[in-house]
Records
---
Amino acid sequence: MLAERLKHYDIILASASPRRKQLLEEMGLRFRVEPKHIDEVFPDDLNPVEAAEFLSRIKADAFTKDDLHDNTLIIASDTVVTLDGEILGKPAGKAEAIEILQQLSGKTHEVITGVTIKALDKQHTFSVTTSVVFKTLSLQEINHYIDTFKPFDKAGAYGIQEWIGHVAIERIDGSYFNVMGLPTHSLYEELLRFA
Amino acid sequence: MLAERLKHYDIILASASPRRKQLLEEMGLRFRVEPKHIDEVFPDDLNPVEAAEFLSRIKADAFTKDDLHDNTLIIASDTVVTLDGEILGKPAGKAEAIEILQQLSGKTHEVITGVTIKALDKQHTFSVTTSVVFKTLSLQEINHYIDTFKPFDKAGAYGIQEWIGHVAIERIDGSYFNVMGLPTHSLYEELLRFA
C-alpha cells in the first residue's frame, strides 16, 4: 500500500493547480502544496512528450539542495495539449481561447502529462499520453463555455471535468485523470518503485 | 444549446444516485430527482447491452400516463458491469465484493449504461459501452478499498471516481462519465434529437 510505504516522507506537491491537489488527495496521500514560480519555457527542438517531461523537471529543479531534507519528496508535473504534433498553449484571452477550441473541434488530440519525482539523492521523470476525441463544437457552444468557465489558465483552453467535458468529449483512450492534470495510476506505480 | 432547447420541459431524473445527479447538473440542466422503486430483474436470455437498456426502460415505465404531463421529460438509466459476457451484480456484502474485485483484477471489463428518455407521446432507449482496464490488485488493496469505501451499492463493486479508480484503472476506452453512471456526451446528443 502506497500511503504506508510513503509515511516517513514529507511530500510536496509543486503545483498551484486545485485539480492536481484534489487528485493527489483522492490517491490517499498526505502532502503539502508548495508551488515555485518558473517560466514555462522549453527549447524549440523538443517534441511534445519531451516538452512535458522537461517542464516537469524544471518545476522539480526549482527546489535546490538547500530546500531538500533527507525525507523530502517532490512531485512536479506539467500538462501539454498537442494537436497534429503542435503544442497548444494556455490562451491569452477570449479570442485565443475561441481559436484553440475551434482547432480541437471535430478532431482527436493528445494530452500529455509529464511528472518528475525528486528526492535528495535521486529523481525520476515519466509521462503519460491520453487521446481525446472532440465532437464538432458550434461557435455558440464555444462562446457559452468560455464566458461561463473562463478557461484561461488551462492548456488547450478546456477542463475535462467541466461542462465542455460532458458535452464535447465523445471518448478518450487512456487515463481520464491524466487529462485533468495527473496520471494517478502511473504515479501510484512509479511512487511504489521510487520509494 | 441544450438547456435553452429544454427550457419548457419539467425534467425528472428517475434515479437516487448522487453521481447521476451530479453529472446531469454538470451538463447544465435543471431537473428534479424522483426515483421510483422497481425490482431490477430482467429476462435470462438478454445479453448485457439488452439488459442495461431493458432496466432503464422499466425504470422509465414506472412512470405511467397519470404521472406524465405534456411537458414532462423522464431520464432513467441503469449501469451494468460485464466481464467475458457475464453480468456482475451489486455485491451483497464484503465477501461478494472481494470476489467481484478479484474477478476484475488484471482484466478488461465493459461498463454499459442504458438510458431511456420518455415523454408523454414518445420514448427512446440507447446505451453506451466503455472498456475499463484494471491492473492486478493485491488482496490488501481490495480489502482497504472495501473497508474504506463500502461499494455495496455499486455494480461491479467499485466507483471509478474513488481511490480505486486512481490506483487500479490503467486506462479506459470510451466515456469516463458513462462508467460513473451517465453517458453525458451521448445523452446531450440524444436529448437534442428528442426534444
---
Amino acid sequence: MAQYRVLIDANDEKGLVHKISTLFYNKDLNILSNNEFVDRENNKFFMRSVVDGEIEYLDLKESLSKVLPNNVNIEVIKPQKKNIIIMVTKEMHALGDILIRHEAGELEANILCVISNYSDLKSLVSKFDIPFVTISHVGLDRVEHENKILDCLSRYKDIDYIVLAKYMRILTPGFVEQYEDKIINIHHSFLPAFIGANPYKQAFDRGVKIIGATSHFVNNNLDEGPIIAQEVIHVDHAYGWRDMQRSGRNVEKIVLSSALKLALEDRIFVYANKTVIF
Amino acid sequence: MAQYRVLIDANDEKGLVHKISTLFYNKDLNILSNNEFVDRENNKFFMRSVVDGEIEYLDLKESLSKVLPNNVNIEVIKPQKKNIIIMVTKEMHALGDILIRHEAGELEANILCVISNYSDLKSLVSKFDIPFVTISHVGLDRVEHENKILDCLSRYKDIDYIVLAKYMRILTPGFVEQYEDKIINIHHSFLPAFIGANPYKQAFDRGVKIIGATSHFVNNNLDEGPIIAQEVIHVDHAYGWRDMQRSGRNVEKIVLSSALKLALEDRIFVYANKTVIF
Amino acid sequence: MAQYRVLIDANDEKGLVHKISTLFYNKDLNILSNNEFVDRENNKFFMRSVVDGEIEYLDLKESLSKVLPNNVNIEVIKPQKKNIIIMVTKEMHALGDILIRHEAGELEANILCVISNYSDLKSLVSKFDIPFVTISHVGLDRVEHENKILDCLSRYKDIDYIVLAKYMRILTPGFVEQYEDKIINIHHSFLPAFIGANPYKQAFDRGVKIIGATSHFVNNNLDEGPIIAQEVIHVDHAYGWRDMQRSGRNVEKIVLSSALKLALEDRIFVYANKTVIF
Amino acid sequence: MAQYRVLIDANDEKGLVHKISTLFYNKDLNILSNNEFVDRENNKFFMRSVVDGEIEYLDLKESLSKVLPNNVNIEVIKPQKKNIIIMVTKEMHALGDILIRHEAGELEANILCVISNYSDLKSLVSKFDIPFVTISHVGLDRVEHENKILDCLSRYKDIDYIVLAKYMRILTPGFVEQYEDKIINIHHSFLPAFIGANPYKQAFDRGVKIIGATSHFVNNNLDEGPIIAQEVIHVDHAYGWRDMQRSGRNVEKIVLSSALKLALEDRIFVYANKTVIF
C-alpha cells in the first residue's frame, strides 16, 4: 500500500471534483483526508487529498493528467523526509527550537546543514552532529557573499526548503529567484506593520499593545512575500523594546516551526502573493 | 437559480465523494463550497456542500437518496431565516448582543419571542418590538414551570433553535428531549472546568489565570452537551470573582453569538456528544 | 467617607512615593489600590492610587500640591458618571454594544447624545431615549460640517469624552485640538498596519492570517494617536474581505468598549504619543 | 551600587507603603520598579520593589524589620543565578526548551543536573555538558524510588527550584513537603479540567474546542497546587488526541518556561493556594 498527497490547483470549472473523485474511485484508492477551496473572486480551485491504495506513483500522476484539463497543476507527493538548509546569524532561539524538534523526531526533515555569516552558533549546532558552515560577509559585497552561499548550496542536490531562522541579511533578487517559494523566513513583527529593521523598537516607539511574528515565503520585496503563519502576544507600557524582543522570541520560534511543519507536510499553496493552507 | 446547503453524514465507505460529486456534475450544479471530514476512529464521514443550479428541492433530495446507500443521512436546506426562541433570566449582555445583531440584519433568524422567569428584561426586549413573555417559576415545581413554557412554545410551529442566553435554571430531561440538538446554551466557564453554579467564584477560588465561556447543545447531563464554541481571556490575581464575571461577559456574549451563527448557517454536525463544524 | 482617584505624573525623582504615601498616611487615608510605573528611558513617573477617608476634595488636592515639586501633574477625581457624546456613521455594532452596556448599568457614563452624518441609526438610538442628531455633510465642506457639529456640542458643557463608534469621516486639526486626548476612536485594523480606508480590503489583499482592531485617542495624524487597546482574531484563506469585516466587528466593539471603560475609570495616562494604563 | 529585590507580604494595615517608601528614601535608595496588591477579601498586602543604592544586604534587611510590624514577611534578594534541578521522563520538548534558553543565556539559573526514571534523554542532556542521572523506578516502590532521588538531591546544597519538565510520576507527600513551593510542574491540560492521566485523551473525548497547559507549584493534591501560568490553543474536530498532544507541546513548553522565568526573577507570592505575580 502506498500513500500519496495529491495537490491540485486550477482555474475553477464544473466537474473537477467529480473527475478527481471518480478517478480515485476507479483506481480503488482510499481518501484519508480531503480539502477543497474555491477562491470565487479569482475563480481558482485548490484541492489537497491524501489517499492510499495499490497504485504506482507514475500511474496515479499520469491518470490524473489524462482526466483533467491541460492547464491544471497536479502534484503527487510521497510522504518522506524533505531536505532543508537552515540559515542563521547570531540568535539561538529559532534555530534551537528546530534542532530540538528535529532531535525529537517531530520534523519530517533532514537538516543538511546550517549556514551562518557568523560562527556564534557553531557550538550549538555541532552538538547535534549537523554540519555548520560559516560564510562571513566581511569584506564582501552582497553578491560576492551570496555567491559563496550558493556555492555551498550547490553541494546539495534536492534542497526542498531554505529556512531563515533569524538570518539578518536581505537576500538579493538573484538569490531569491533560484529558490522561489522555497525560502521560509521569520519576520519579528506582525506584518505588514513594522517592515524592515528592528521592528521591536518600531513597535515600542509606536506604543502598541500587541506584538507579533510572521512567517512568510521570501520574494523580492522586503518582508512582502506570501504569509504562512502569524501569531501575537499582548504587551503593555511596562515593556521596553528589549522586553518586547525577549517575549517576542517565544512567538517567533513557534510561528517559524509551525510554518515549516506546514511546508514539510505539503499543506501550502502559493498564489497571488498569498497562501491557501489545508 | 436556487441555492442549497447539502449536509451528508454516513458510515465511511469508498465512493461517497465520487457518487455525490458525480450527481452534482450530472445535475449541472455549481459547487460554491465543499467541506469533508472523516473521523477515522469511528469510521464516520461528514460533508457539507453549498451548491446552486436549476434544480428543484425535491429533485435534489430524491436524487441524492437514490445514488447513496440507505443508511446515509441527507439534509438539503434552502438558506432562509430560521425561527428562534430566546430564554433568559436577568442578565442583559448575551440577550442584548443577539438583539443588536438581529436589528443590524446580521442574523439569519426571526426572533419569535423572548421568555423569562423574571420580567427584568421586558423593557429592553420591548424596545425592539419582540414579544416578551414572563413565566415566573415562583410557587411552581420544575415540571409545572416547564409545562407553562412548553405551552407558550406550542403556540409557535417550526421552532428551529431555542437559545439560552443566560437562562439560569436547569431544564428537565422531559423538556430537553423535545428539542434534541436544538437548545443552545452559554455556560459561563471553560467547560469541563467549573460545571454547575457560579463558575466565576469557583475559578477565583482555584486561582486560575485564564477564564472562558462555552457554548454547547443541551442534553440531559448538566453542562455535558456537545460543545460548539469556546473562548477565553487572561486574568490575574487582581481580579476578584466579580471582576472575572464582568470581564467574562464579553466572552460569553461573543461565544454564544458565534455558536448561534454556526447553527443558523447549518454548519454543525452533532455525533458522539461532539460537534463537527464546517 | 469619600473615595478619590489620585493620578500623578512627573519627572522621576527620589522620594515621590515617600512624599505621597506619607501624606496619605498623615491624612489617615486608606489606600484601596496603588499602581506605579517609571519609564526609565524618559525618566517619567506615573502613579494612580484609589484612596478613601474623611477628607474634602480641595484639602486633598491642595495638600498634594504642597508636598510635591512644582512641575508635577496632580489630578484628584471623585468617581462619578462621566458625560460622553457618541459619533457614528451607519454601522450599528459598536454603537449597539455601548448602548446595551449603558442600559445594563455597566458604564460609568451618561450618553448626552449620538451625532451622525446619516440618519440610519436614529431608530436604534431612539429606542433607548437618547437624543440623536443628524448633521449631514452633504453639500458642506469639511469645516462647515464640523462647525455644525461643534455648535451641537457647545450645547453640552462638561463633555468628558467623544467616542467615535465607527464615525467614518476624518476630523480636521481644528476640531481635534478642542478635544485633545478626549476623542476615542476605533480603527478597524491592527494599527499601524493598514492605516486609512478599508483596512479589511487591504488585509485581505495582503493575505494576512490575523486581523485586529485598535482603539486610540485621536490626534492630528490619521490613525496615529496614542493606542489604548488592541485585539486580534485569526483568519484564513477562506475569508473574503467581507468575511473579515464581519468577524472584525466582534473585535471592534469589544476593543472600543474596553478602551472607553479604561477612560471612564481614569486609568489612562497619555504621554509621548503612548498610553500608560493601570 | 547594589541592586535588591524586596518582597514584602503582610496583613494589610494603614501605613505600610509609607513606612517602606520612607525607609527607601532615608537610605537614599532608588526605586527601579514597584508593584503592590491588596487582596481586600483576605486583607493581605503584597509588595515587590526593585531598588538600588549604596547599602549592604544586612543593613537593608534589618532596617526593614525595624520599621515594619512583627508579623510581616520580608525577603531581600540579590539578583543572581538560582540553582535548579530538572526532572523528566521521556518527552523532549519541555526539557529541550529549557536547555536552549539556558544555552542562550536567557535563564537566570544554573542547571545542577537532570534526573530521570529513564535514560532516553541522556543523549540530549549530555550534549550540553549537564549531568544526567537515571534513577529507574523499576522494581522499587514509590518511596524507595523517591529516597534514591532524595539521595541524589542531597548532594546539592541550595537547590532553589525543582522543575518537573514532563516528569510523569506522582510525587509522595513526603517528597513534596521537603520542597514546599519549590517544585514547578507543567500539567498538560487547562486545569482544573482534565486532572490526572492522559488529559489530551480526556479532552478529545469531551470534544473541546480549546486545549491548554498549566504550570503550577506542586502540593499534595494531584494537580491542585497554586497556578503560576496557563495558556491555550484552539483545536477543532479534525484533531485526534495525538494531534492535540502534538500541538499541546508548543503550549506546554512555553508555559513551563514562562513560569520558571517568573520564579527565577522572584516575581511570585504564594498564598491561599494561589499566586500573586508581579
